[in-house]
């Protein structure tokens, strides 16, 4: 059974992180898929991978063995092109202990970064009193849309907002709604979304994924919503979200190059 481990946010020689694994097996004209969150411990030949919760499973019946073989080859090719590495050895079933869960508190989230374009010039033009009033309306609009989309506000930084969502469609819907809401205030924003793991340490959320999200947002122009390839992979066919390829970019301070997509409509 070919198996693949998600890479990109974390380097493969790092121990003690959560990631995603994907497996495929063909039997005659049927293809059996299995995927889900995993914990990775150790490095190199001594690396061990565990399912952190029960994986999802799906059976695809292709009608003929040749179609099943073609389906399997195409599925494997997609994983190789989407920041997965071949995984050797088994993926073991293991329930993390309560003590370990309390210590790590790691989670996967859709991370949204919002930033006002040209805020310094706007503040200088309006003056402190009017700008303070506009910012009050701005944060009220942001929190209203976050609540509607079931997003979680993490932190505000000046005129920026960082929030998390459980589903990519919710994050993208919130981003597009925010674009419309702030225009009534005479503001333009840029938005970036990324999917990645974060860790709660000392009551604060930390992780490279937040920095990647910030860099994705920085690539957006006024009125644009950009998402990383990690977000695109999580969007289901039923989500009816239109994305346009925005090219491959180098994100400041982040390993490798990342393909970004612009939300259309």
TrEMBL record:
<feature type="domain" description="Guanylate cyclase">
    <location>
        <begin position="110"/>
        <end position="217"/>
    </location>
</feature>
<dbReference type="InterPro" id="IPR001054">
    <property type="entry name" value="A/G_cyclase"/>
</dbReference>
<dbReference type="InterPro" id="IPR029787">
    <property type="entry name" value="Nucleotide_cyclase"/>
</dbReference>
<dbReference type="GO" id="GO:0035556">
    <property type="term" value="P:intracellular signal transduction"/>
</dbReference>
<dbReference type="GO" id="GO:0004016">
    <property type="term" value="F:adenylate cyclase activity"/>
</dbReference>
<protein>
    <submittedName>
        <fullName>Adenylate cyclase</fullName>
    </submittedName>
</protein>
<dbReference type="GO" id="GO:0009190">
    <property type="term" value="P:cyclic nucleotide biosynthetic process"/>
</dbReference>
<dbReference type="InterPro" id="IPR050697">
    <property type="entry name" value="Adenylyl/Guanylyl_Cyclase_3/4"/>
</dbReference>
């Amino acid at each position: 059974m070919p198996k693949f481990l998600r890479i990109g946010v974390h380097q493969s020689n790092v121990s003690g992180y959560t990631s995603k694994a994907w497996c495929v097996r063909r039997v005659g004209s049927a293809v059996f898929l299995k995927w889900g969150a995993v914990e990775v411990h150790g490095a190199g030949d001594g690396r061990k991978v565990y399912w952190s919760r029960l994986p999802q499973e799906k059976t695809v019946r292709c009608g003929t063995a040749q179609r099943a073989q073609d389906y399997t080859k195409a599925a494997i090719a997609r994983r190789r092109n989407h920041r997965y590495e071949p995984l050797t050895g088994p993926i073991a079933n293991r329930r993390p202990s309560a003590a370990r869960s309390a210590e790590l508190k790691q989670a996967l989230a859709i991370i949204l970064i919002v930033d006002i374009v040209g805020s310094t010039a706007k503040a200088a033009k309006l003056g402190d009193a009017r700008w303070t009033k506009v910012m009050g309306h701005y944060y009220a609009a942001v929190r209203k849309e976050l609540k509607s989309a079931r997003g979680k506000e993490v932190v505000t930084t000046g005129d920026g907002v960082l929030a998390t969502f459980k589903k990519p469609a919710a994050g993208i819907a919130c981003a597009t709604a925010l674009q419309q809401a702030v225009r009534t205030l005479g503001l333009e924003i840029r938005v970036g979304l990324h999917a990645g793991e974060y860790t709660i340490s000392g009551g604060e959320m930390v992780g490279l994924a937040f920095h990647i999200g910030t860099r994705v947002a920085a690539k957006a122009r006024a009125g644009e919503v950009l998402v990383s390839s990690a977000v695109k992979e999580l969007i289901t066919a039923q989500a009816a979200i239109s994305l346009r390829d925005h090219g491959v970019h180098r994100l400041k301070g982040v390993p490798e190059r990342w393909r970004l997509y612009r939300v259309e409509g």
